[in-house]
Amino acid sequence: MRQGRTLLLICLSLLLISGCTLLPEAGPAPLQLQLEPLGKSQESRAKHYGADTPTLVVERPQSTPALNSRNIWYQPAPNQLMPFRDHIWSEPLPQQLQRISVDYLADQLSQISVHQDRPGIDATYRLSITLHTWHLDQLAGTLAIALHADLLTAEGKPLAHWQWEQTETLSEISATGMAASSQRWMERWLESLSERLAQVVAGN
Question: Buried-most residue among 12, 40, 162, 190 (CB within 10 A)?
Answer without folding.
Answer: 190
